[in-house]
Design brief:
InterPro entries: AAA+_ATPase, ABC_transporter-like_ATP-bd, ABC_transporter-like_CS, ABC_transpr_TagH-like, Bact_Polysacc_Export_ATP-bd, P-loop_NTPase. The protein is α/β, with parallel strands linked by helices. The protein folds into two domains: 148 residues, P-loop containing nucleotide triphosphate hydrolases (Rossmann fold), CATH 3.40.50.300; 67 residues. Strand 5, helix 5 and strand 6 form a beta-alpha-beta unit. The chain is globular, with a radius of gyration of 18 Å.
């Protein structure tokens, strides 16, 4: 289970002002199930994913879990831009506890899976957004997590790579929980079982993804 307690997140604006994405939200997500997250643009879906994956810290509150949570697949803002993809991959392996031999083996998997070619040896700042997404996805796929965070899987690389990513994603679904953000509502309905709607009134949990999508659509139609 992932438990979110009294979570607040804001970002600085010009001067002393701050933009608050959400304030004091709390909810629980069950383990061993697949969760679809819906909401309008700006509702805080990607921000929530970064907080769940530990890529950012909240202003207040906390996220606790009974298992390991991946960084969000599809988001690639956590890389050191000045160093090569290989060194980013190696660093992530080491902070996750790999010794030298295990890190070498995992980095080789990441190199092959990402299909970055010579760019794997170049600074990440030279990558396109699709290449960064491929590197992020490949790194996450090299580890075994209890919860995989998927932020718009369709953003990961070109069509050929997306097909490979989808096949790997399907394999992971059989081994772990999936928490997925997407504007592709049919894909959410196909791949997820329960839903979290980031509504203007706060997060609403539904035991059926179809009900979450219906609530989201109803609010969209009444705006």
């Amino acid at each position: 289970m992932i438990r979110v307690e009294n979570l607040t997140k804001s970002y600085p604006l010009q001067g002393f002002a701050r933009y608050t994405v959400f304030r004091g939200i709390s909810f629980e997500l069950p383990s061993r199930t697949h969760v679809g997250i819906v909401g309008r643009n700006g509702a805080g879906k990607s921000t929530l994913m970064r907080l769940l994956g530990g890529m950012e810290l909240p202003d207040t509150g906390r996220v606790t879990s009974d298992g390991l949570i991946s960084p969000p697949l599809g988001l690639s803002s956590g890389f050191a831009q000045k160093i090569p993809g290989r060194d980013n991959a190696r660093f992530i392996c080491r902070i996750n506890g790999d010794d030298n031999a295990a890190a070498r083996e995992r980095v080789e998997f990441i190199r092959e899976f990402s299909e970055l070619g010579e760019f794997f040896e170049r600074p990440v700042e030279t990558y396109s957004s699709g290449m960064k997404a491929r590197l992020a996805f490949s790194i996450s796929m090299s580890f075994r997590y209890d919860y995989y965070l998927i932020d718009e899987l369709t953003a990961v690389g070109d069509e050929k790579f997306r097909e490979k990513a989808k096949a790997t994603f399907a394999e992971k679904k059989g081994q772990a929980s999936i928490i997925m953000v997407s504007h592709n509502l049919p894909a959410l309905k196909r791949d997820c079982e329960v839903g979290l709607y980031m509504s203007p009134r706060g997060p609403l949990y539904f035991d059926d993804i179809g009900e979450a999508i219906a609530a989201y659509k109803k609010d969209q139609n009444t705006r």
